[in-house]
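task queued by scheduler; priority normal; single chain, no ligands, no partner chains; default sampling; output format set to structure tokens
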Amino acid sequence: MKTNYMDITPLAYDIKDLARICGRGKSVIWEEIGAGRLKARKAGGKTIVLHVDAVAWLEALPLWEPEKLAA
């Protein structure tokens, strides 16, 4: 059985692709990297974020808690 490359989770993302799959802008990704909340690496001249680091960053975001309605 042949594996479709689209079924394989990438090992890393460039900033543009990470922003697209997370639904955030590139500037937000860069801000998170600059603040040290998202780990990034350099591969040649390209900045990449490992899949595991992207998942860790997303999991560290605060949980949304609905506001309690006034009775």
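post-processing summary
- The chain has a mean pLDDT of 91.
- DSSP finds three helices and three strands in the chain.
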